Amino acid sequence: MSSVKNVAVVGATGAVGRETIRVLEQRRFPVGELRLFASPRSAGMTVPFAGREVPVRALECVPAEFEGIDLVLVSAGGAVSRRVCPVAAAAGATVIDKSSVFRMEPDVPLVVPEVNPQAIRRRPRGIVANPNCATIQLVVAVAPLHRAAGIRRMVVSTYQSASGAGEKGRAELEADTRAFLEGRAPVQSTFARPLGFNCVPLIDRLLDDGSTFEERKTVEETRKILEAPALRIAATTVRVPVLVGHSAAVFLELERPLAPEEAWAELCRAPGVVVVDEPSVGKVPTPRDAAGTDAVYVGRIRRDPSVEHGLALWVVADNLRKGAATNGVQIAELLL
Fold first, then answer.
1. Angle in degrees, 0-180, between the axes of helices 133-149 and 213-226, rounded to the nearest 10
2. Going by C-beta distance under 8 Å and a sequence separation of 6 or more, which residues neighbour residue 65?
3. Is-above-0.85 flag for pTM?
4. Longest C-alpha distance within the chain, in Å?
5. Which residue of 99, 158, 208, 317 has the fewest C-beta atoms within 10 A of its own C-beta?
6. CATH 3.30.360.10 region(s) of the chain?
7. Helix (H) / strand (E) containing 22
């Protein structure tokens, strides 16, 4: 890598923000100055980076905060993104936003570097969108199969960890699990139902058609990234009592025949994919195995006999890293 960049991280003390800072250091991104921003209650804290403690500033959303900054990574939620991204871009920075605010805007590229790196070339507003965490791992896994045999229809069920709701989600799962074991009242404020020892098929708000916004994001973002606007997709998203790591059961109806062995070979060649597929000896991808890593793990690759040219697979990734922080830093690397 070359060309040192001055970098700002907005939402620096949240789960994804802290992971972003770690990933910048681990991947040796050429950071010159690093500015960290968060809410006023986090001002004055410090975050470790490259052997030093970097102070956190209270975000004011004014252009002066981004003067001299080349790259801004934003992971502070939609309301903050809506305010800060245009300000930072107008100050001359390229903004990588991890909220859903800009993802479906036609003049904002939605990028997964292993799948559609070319999309980053056209960014007239100076903003690049990072997809939804579950969508990222899904498209990394299915894109090589789409190129090989064409996807006619996809049915996907995601099993998403508590940390997908941030630090407060992870803390609530831990507290509710203890409450359940100790016979106390459930702890619930972040999720639609108590999450300890439970599965909750409601993520984000409910829409008029009975789907959730999380499910709509899965459908619409996948179509945009794959450049397949007519692709038929049915999605169900479920919150599960896992601390870190999202999983997905994926069923594909393909345009052309693709044997499981051929799919296995395509996935083994695909960037960012690790195939773990020896179920007879218990070698299958799990969230615990994926936590702390950047790959998308695929296993249980098999024929789906319910449709012509059907294929089924299981996909797992760390939602805080590849599902958010690492994908954002990989986008930044495309800009070097």
1. 40
2. 8, 35, 37, 57, 59, 88, 91
3. yes
4. 59
5. 208
6. 135-318
7. helix 15-26
**Measured distance CA(68)–CA(198) in Å, rounded:** 48
**246 belongs to the catalytic site:** yes
Q: How far apart are CA 214 and CA 18, in angstroms?
A: 23
Q: Using CA atoms, how far apart are residues 12 and 74, in angstroms rounded to an integer?
A: 8
Kindly tell me the sign of the dihedral angle through the C-alpha atoms of 186, 187, 193, 196.
negative
Ranges in the chain annotated CATH 3.40.50.720: 5-131+324-334
Three-state SS letters, 56-109: EEECCCCHHHHCCCCEEEECCCHHHHHHHHHHHHHCCCEEEECCCCCCCCCCCC
5-131+324-334 maps to which CATH number? 3.40.50.720
Backbone angles phi, psi at 29, to 5 degrees: -65, 135
CATH code given to domain 135-318 = 3.30.360.10
> What are the DSSP E strand ranges found in 181-245?
232-239
**Strand, coil or helix: what is 321?**
helix
In tens, the pLDDT along 309-334 reads 999 999 999 999 999 999 999 999 99
**Of 133, 146, 268, 309, which residue is the catalytic one?**
133
The predicted-structure confidence for 27-54, as pLDDT tens digits, reads as follows 999 999 999 999 999 999 999 999 999 9
**Active-site residue identified among 61, 85, 146, 246:** 246
pLDDT at 92 exceeding the cut of 80: yes
Would the pLDDT of 1 be above 70? no
- Which residues, 6 or more positions from 286, have their beta carbon under 8 angstroms from its beta carbon? 245, 247, 316
Neighbours of 281 (CB within 10 A): 6
The string of DSSP letters for 261-299 reads HHHHHHHHHSTTEEE--BGGGTB---HHHHTT---EEEE
Nearest to 259 by CA among 305, 315, 296, 228: 305
Q: How far is CA 304 from CA 7, 93, 257, 284, 301, in A?
A: 46, 47, 12, 18, 9
Identify residue 315 by its one-letter amino acid code. Answer: V
CA distance 288 to 247: 11
